Amino acid sequence: MVEYDELENRMILKLVYYGPAMSGKTTNLLQLHDILDQDNRGELTVLDTKNDRTLFFDLLPFFLIAPSGLKIKLKVFTVPGQVQHDATRKAVLQRADGVAFIADSQLTEETNNFESFKNLEQNLDFVGLDIEKIPLVVQFNKRDLQNIIPETDVTDAWEPTGIPVFMSSALLGKGVLDTFRRLLELTYEHVDRRYMLWDKHGLDKSKFVHQLTMRSDNEPLHEGI
Ligand SMILES: Nc1nc2c(ncn2[C@@H]2O[C@H](COP(=O)(O)OP(=O)(O)OP(=O)(O)O)[C@@H](O)[C@H]2O)c(=O)[nH]1
Ligand SMILES: [Mg+2]
């Protein structure tokens, strides 16, 4: 749910990386932080980790100014995946404008992926958001490992849902930007319908996405990274 302050001409958007413990949510943010231009983003806050497990959340903020002067701050959060941190997941999910579900591709993790997606559905409902309406993408991470669920099985299972699915290895930086980009596109469309980002603020989708995914080496974005 967009935070919009018309008087101050400011908007805050919130994206959440959700998924089971150790699926690679924090690693996705670390990679985005490394790959993307620091002119458009702030620093990455990684809060209170214990043995690399997120206990609260991580946060990577981005900034963008529309041609109208509208100042947009985009906050990208991760939740802690461990089952016992459900209260924190609910808190982080409040007022989310979009979600990336990071699944672990290892065959051993199928149940955890399933339980975590069910938990996402329940918690969205708890915070008053509708999984059918919120911008949502799914990423199957850790494709670099052995004993992973075959891509065709993933596609067969997810294609009927219409939810965009990405294969990735966040550790190697693969698929991370594709996932983020698609989530930004869907989020733009969602926000534009209500806040007229184009009609009122002169900000079109490609500019929105392009500005927020500018690489630090200033090379044009190419897929697969
Ligand atoms: N092989 C491999 N390891 C990965 C990949 N992505 C993340 N990892 C590793 O998996 C472990 C967990 O990654 P995190 O990013 O901390 O996972 P998380 O989803 O934030 O975990 P929680 O904070 O506990 O929910 C780390 O050791 C990562 O280096 C990947 O694509 N391939
Ligand atoms: Mg984490």
What attributes characterize this protein structure?
single chain, 225 residues, alpha/beta, Rossmann fold, 8-stranded mixed sheet, two-stranded antiparallel ribbon, 6 helices, 22% strand, disordered C terminus, binds guanosine-5'-triphosphate, binds magnesium ion
Structure, described:
The chain has 225 residues and is α/β, with parallel strands linked by helices. It has a single domain, classed as P-loop containing nucleotide triphosphate hydrolases (Rossmann fold, 3-Layer(aba) Sandwich). Helices cover 32% and strands 22% of the residues. It is built from six helices and ten strands. The chain has helices at residues 25-35, 86-93, 110-126, 151-158, 176-195, 205-212, and strands spanning 3-5, 10-18, 45-46, 49-50, 53-54, 58-65, 71-78, 98-104, 136-141, 165-167. Strands 1, 2, 3, 6, 7, 8, 9 and 10 form an eight-stranded mixed sheet that branches. Helix 5 (176-195) crosses helix 6 (205-212). It is globular. The two termini are 30 Å apart. 39% of the residues are buried. The protein binds guanosine-5'-triphosphate (GTP) and magnesium ion. Residues 25-26, 54, 78 line the site of magnesium ion. Guanosine-5'-triphosphate is lined by residues 19, 21-27, 52-54, 78, 80-82, 141-142, 144-145, 169-171.
